[in-house]
Amino acid sequence: MKTILKLFVILFSVLTLNSCLAGKFMCKYALTPTPHGIEDIDRTRHKADSLQPGSTAWYDQLQQAGVIKDTTILGYRNNKVYAMYAPAKDPANARGTAVIVHGYGDNHFVFIYLARMYRDDLNYNILMPDLQYHGYSEGDHIQMGWNDRLDVEKWIGVAHDIFQDDFMVVHGVSMGASCVMMLSGDPQPDYVRCYVEDCGYSTVMGQFQHNLKQSFPIIPKDVLNSASIVCKKRYGWSFKEASAIEQLAKCDRPMLFIHGNADDFVSFSNLQQNYDAKVNGYKEMWVTEGSVHANSFARYPEEYKKRVEEFLTRVKGML
Fold first, then answer.
1. At residue 98, does pLDDT exceed 90?
2. How far apart are CA 34 and CA 32, in angstroms?
3. Which end of the chain is more exposed for a tag (fewer CB within 10 A), N or C?
4. How many alpha carbons fall within 13 Å on the CB side of residue 318?
5. What does the pLDDT read at residue 1?
6. Backbone φ, ψ for residue 307 (5° rounding)
7. Mean pLDDT lowest for which of 26-40, 67-81, 164-178, 261-275?
8. Are 265 and 293 within 8 A, CB to CB?
């Protein structure tokens, strides 16, 4: 009996150690990929042109003319975080301000197409931050939108101080969309009127489980519980608490939900989960036929602009 007990203890210890090591690996793999930040700017600039040709030339021209400006603030955990901003194409008749939030592993450059849409087509002022561990911002890990929401909430105030208008939309794609949904459940200033989320995931744990199944099918999903514990100890938050679903339940301001039905990275099923979780206030849903992840604009650029503009017009009509 003692021999069996010893073997059980040894086996349990080995499994626990393996689980701990696997958890540390998964946490590092998911939250601290390389390259990142400034080292990855060139890749993301080229990616911007693949989503909308001429994006970087448009950006560089405005930057050289002094239209696009840079700013930094101290964000969550006192890391320096960066954003670019620019006035509407016709500043005297600006229709509002758009704060645009990028996705996982990218930075503001990738989503220049949204900056062009809001500034040139819709005549909105724009502000685009780099989330922590991305672009020109500091940070020691990717926060999956959860603590990023705290930085974006600061940027919302900065954008209002710069442009001094009373209508703001916060628009995010992929992880940026989840960030937008996560912040939508927090108290916001009155001038934040609505949100647009494009292909965001419902929960961080659910997204990691989906990606684990895709990339590491032989690894049991329970390893993510260990990774979550490592994340909590190392960075102060856990995968389980990072939930757009729970935050959406507290959101009462209008939101437009967009998702491609061919998305297999952030599963299309997230759309309905997110939409159903928002039980208060106005909401719209647009399913883009055949679009893969974060590809709705590239596939349907004119309809994307039209859908967003019509949504914003309806929101203004409710004020």
1. yes
2. 7
3. N
4. 15
5. 36
6. -65, -45
7. 26-40
8. yes
| Angle in degrees, CA 46, 173, 256, rounded to 5 | 140
Q: Span 46-203+242-318: which CATH code?
A: 3.40.50.1820
CB 247 within 8 A of CB 273: no
The tokens for 133 are 């561990």
140-163: per-residue pLDDT in tens? 999 999 999 999 999 999 999 999
Whether residue 8 is predicted with pLDDT greater than 60 in this model: the reply is no
Provide the residue ranges of all domains of the chain, joining segments of one domain with +.
46-203+242-318
Give the burial class of 90: count Cβ atoms within 10 A of its Cβ; 0-12 exposed, 13-18 middle, 19 or more buried.
Answer: exposed
Reduced to 3 states (helix: H, G, I; strand: E, B; else coil), residue 309 is helix
Q: Are 185 and 250 in contact (CB under 8 A)?
A: yes
Provide CB contacts within 8 A for 16, sequence distance 6+: none
Q: Is the dihedral of CA 74, 78, 80, 83 positive or negative?
A: negative
Residue 19 has a pLDDT of 54
Sequence-distant (6+) residues with CB within 8 A of 145 are 131, 172, 175, 176, 178, 179, 182, 200, 204, 242, 244
Dihedral through CA 257, CA 260, CA 265, CA 270, nearest 10?
A: 40
Look at residues 63, 87, 51 and name the one whose alpha carbon lies nearest to residue 291: 51
